[in-house]
Design a protein that fits this description.
This protein is mostly helical and about 140 residues long. It has one domain. About 70% of the residues lie in helices and about 0% in strands. Helix 1 runs antiparallel to helix 2, helix 2 runs antiparallel to helix 3 and helix 3 packs antiparallel against helix 4. The longest helix is centred in the N-terminal third of the chain and has 41 residues. About 10% of the residues have low confidence. Keywords: Signal.
Length: about 140
């Protein structure tokens, strides 16, 4: 017995595969934008001249990484990624990107928690460097 797929079903199947590919690309674009925005704020923290500004930008970095429902999200600080997704760490990504994002988060959290300006700026720079590697 031979089963033949109608032309309509083939077109429907192709359309579904195309839609999945477009959705996956859109998620990757959101991750890229969230990581880039987080990296920009880590860079602003690294170049700041006072601890308060460093902490503020590192909290913005953290907010971009964890998203509004994530551990460590600070609603008292702006979320520059609010229109880009739900946090870079929540996006569907590769294991390599996930590792970089987690490492950047750890650096941002450490930098935001210290009272040593030089250490906070160093951690911010390290977070920026890691985020620049996310694809």
């Amino acid at each position: 017995m031979t089963i033949r797929m109608s032309k309509g079903l083939r077109v429907l199947g192709f359309g579904a595969v195309s839609l999945i590919a477009v959705a996956t690309a859109a998620l990757a674009a959101d991750l890229s934008k969230e990581a880039a925005t987080a990296g920009q704020h880590a860079g602003m923290a690294a170049s700041a001249t006072d601890l308060k500004t460093v902490e503020t930008h590192l909290h913005m970095t953290i907010n971009c990484l964890v998203g509004p429902k994530g551990k460590g999200f600070d609603a008292q600080v702006a979320n520059p990624c609010k229109d880009l997704g739900n946090g870079a760490l929540t996006e569907n990504t590769t294991p390599a990107n996930k590792k970089l994002l987690k490492q950047a988060l750890a650096k941002a959290e450490t930098g935001a928690a210290t009272s040593d300006l030089a250490k906070a700026k160093s951690d911010a720079k390290a977070a920026q460097t890691l985020l620049d590697k996310v694809m």
